[in-house]
Amino acid sequence: MFWKKKESETDIISFESDNLRESFRYYFKNGQGFQIEFKEKKVWVLNIGAGGIAFPNNGFEKSDVDFVQFTLDIPNFKGDSTFSAKLRILAIDKKNICHSTFEQCSIEHHELIHKYVLEMQKNDLAH
After folding, report:
1. Which of 17, 19, 22, 26 is deepest in the core (most CB within 10 A)?
2. What is the pLDDT of residues 13-58, one digit of tens each?
3. 24 vs 3, 39, 55, 79, CA distance in Å?
4. Which residues of 62-80 are buried (b: 16+ CB within 10 A; e: fewer)?
């Protein structure tokens, strides 16, 4: 007789891509983000992850691209936290928020964003 192995909850691991993405992003509380300049207009960053950022639409269009540079205020970090890369708008949602991706971004800069997100999340948990 053959027994069918019962699947336990630990045998099946599924991640919804949106949930996984959320865990590696930092969402700023109202008034706590920072500004960048995109296409000669200043915008507030709403959230950030190694893949890109989100910010309010200020007359931009899907596929707009610009070179951005900003300095991250990373808690417990003593190195150079200046970030630079091309930024391309991938989508503009119904709430008029631009979702963008970093292009031509070095591994070091990706790691810098990861460090920033981790330290900001740890800082929030501590307070």
Report:
1. 26
2. 333 444 444 448 999 988 788 999 999 999 999 999 999 999 999 9
3. 41, 26, 17, 22
4. eebebebebebebeeeeee
